[in-house]
Design a protein that fits this description.
Layout lengths: L5 H21 L3 E9 L2 E8 L7 H16 L5 E4 L12
Parallel strand pairs: 2-3
Antiparallel strand pairs: 1-2
Helix pairs in contact: 1-2
């Protein structure tokens, strides 16, 4: 269990996604959206050129997860939400 509430996590996660991760993905035509944080799980969605890209799994693990875990907490869980599942986060 993380020592932070979801509300505590929101500002730093939002900041890292917007200032560090989004610009990296944008260079390759990709984008990322922070959908929600529920029970310490960060729900993001890769967009733009990331959708259907064979490297999106690596992007998630080596850019998104690495940046967030290093900056916030090593046990943070990052969930990439497939298109169409935005309203069903609890099922993921």
């Amino acid at each position: 269990m993380l020592p932070f509430s979801d509300e505590d996590l929101r500002p730093p996660v939002t900041s890292i996604v917007e200032s560090k991760i989004a610009p990296m993905l944008a260079r390759d035509g990709g984008a990322i959206e922070l959908l929600d944080i529920i029970d310490g799980r960060v729900f993001i969605q890769l967009k733009g050129a990331c959708v259907g890209c064979s490297a999106s799994g690596s992007t998630l693990k080596f850019i998104v997860e690495k940046e967030l875990k290093a900056a916030i907490h090593p046990e943070l869980q990052i969930v990439n939400v497939p298109a169409g599942m935005e309203n069903n986060l609890q099922e993921l």
